[in-house]
Amino acid sequence: MSQPSTVDPRPRVEQGPDGRYRVEGIRCPSCGEVAAFAWPRCPACRSGVGPASFGPDGTVWSSTVVRIPVPGRTPPYVLAYVDLDDGPRVLAHVTGPGAPIGGRVRLAPPSADGDVTVEVLA
Amino acid sequence: MTVAVHGVGTSHFGRQPHRDLVALAADAVQEAFLDAGTDDIDAVWVGTVFGPPGVAQRVLRAMGVTGIPVVTVENACASGTTAFAEAHEAVRTGRHGRVLALGLEQMSTAFAGAITPEPTDPEGRSGLALPALYAMAAARYLHLGLATPEQLAAVSVKNHAHALHNPRAQYSGRHTVAEVLASRMIADPLTLLQCCPTSDGAAAAVLAPATGGAREVTVRGVALRSGAPWNHRSPHVWGHDLVRRTAMDAFAAAELLDATDVDVAEVHDAFTIGEIVTTEALGFVAPGDGGKAAAAGVTALGGVLPVNPSGGLLSRGHPLGATGLAQLAEIVWQLRGEARGRQVEGARLGLVETMGGGVSVLDGNSCVVAVLEAP
Question: A19-120 has which fold?
Answer without folding.
Answer: OB fold (Dihydrolipoamide Acetyltransferase, E2P) (2.40.50)
